[in-house]
Amino acid sequence: MAKTGATQLDTVFAARQITKVYHMGEVDVHALRGVDLDLYRGEFVVLLGPSGSGKSTLLNILGGLDTPSAGSVHYLDKELTDFDDAALTRYRRDHVGFVFQFYNLIPSLNARENVALITEIARNPMTPSEALALVDLQEREDHFPAQMSGGEQQRVAIARAVAKRPDVLLCDEPTGALDVQTGVLVLGAIQRINRELGTTTAVITHNAVIADMADRVIHLSGGLITGVDTNTTKREAHELTW
Fold first, then answer.
1. Does any domain span residue 13?
2. pLDDT tens-digit profile of 32-49?
3. 223 contacts 54 by C-beta, under 8 angstroms
4. 175 domain residue, yes or no
5. By C-alpha distance, which of 74, 54, 65 is closest to 11?
6. pLDDT digits (tens, 9 = 90+) for 52-103
7. Do 220 and 36 contact (CB within 8 A), yes or no?
8. For the chain, which terminal residue's Cβ has fewer other Cβ atoms within 10 angstroms, N or C?
């Protein structure tokens, strides 16, 4: 699954034969069944598949939120599958930004303060104002979550995720709770960060329209990668509708 012309230095993630089995009482649930995956520096990838296809499990393993039952995952020259809990915590803190379907903002903090939760512990952060400007919310810094729309809250969550200048941005159904118009604004913010910061970006979704934004589209079903498409022409977020 190598990218044409890619070098070893371009490879950010190399996952080999990843399996994940969840033991639910007497039942074993096979979320991933031997997945091989490479993600490359600076690319925008969409992981596309229905609910239960293994998308979130794969993303969580890449992000160090979960560990595989078998197989190996390399991040650059490091093998994540050898990391203990403390090393995984450092990896998540220093290298990965997460965006989830639900915003997880703290209601009693304004937008700037929510972003500052990350900038205060990061090694080389932007200022909260810089991060909010990246998602076009510089005029909303002093507003609390209850004073913002769902799309604005999600963009605050994106600003919080990228304020530490992560190498990788992992987004799990970032538009799942939003209407089309608002979702397009959120996707535009993610697209801008990928382009302007060169952040390797992976977005998981069941919405096939979003795949048109990607450099590559990785299709999952039943815990397996069933195909990979490369977009020769990518669409802008504002061109999408569903």
1. no
2. 999 999 999 999 999 999
3. yes
4. yes
5. 74
6. 999 999 999 999 999 999 999 999 999 999 999 999 999 999 999 999 999 9
7. no
8. C
Asked whether residue 74 is assigned to any structural domain, the reply reads no
At 133, give phi and psi (nearest 5°).
-65, -35
User: Are residues 182 and 149 in contact, defined by beta-carbon separation less than 8 angstroms?
Assistant: yes
Which domain range does residue 224 map to?
Answer: 42-67+93-239
For the stretch 121-177, pLDDT in tens is 888 899 999 999 999 999 999 999 999 999 999 999 999 999 999 999 999 999 988
SS3 216: strand
Domain presence at residue 15? no
Determine the Cα–Cα distance for residues 128 and 139; give it in Å rounded to an integer. Answer: 12
Q: State pTM to two decimals.
A: 0.92
Tally of domains in the chain = 1
Please state the three-class secondary structure of 87-112 as a single string. HHHHHHHHHEEEECCCCCCCCCCCHH
Q: Are 22 and 2 in contact (CB under 8 A)?
A: no
- Please tell me the predicted confidence (pLDDT) of residue 15: 97
- CATH code at position 180: 3.40.50.300
3-state helix, strand, coil split of the chain in percent (to 5) is: 35, 30, 35
Listed as own residue / partner, the contacts of 28-32 with beta carbons closer than 8 Å and 24 or more positions apart are 30/223, 31/57, 31/223, 32/57, 32/58, 32/61, 32/68, 32/223, 32/224
Average pLDDT over residues 2-14: 69
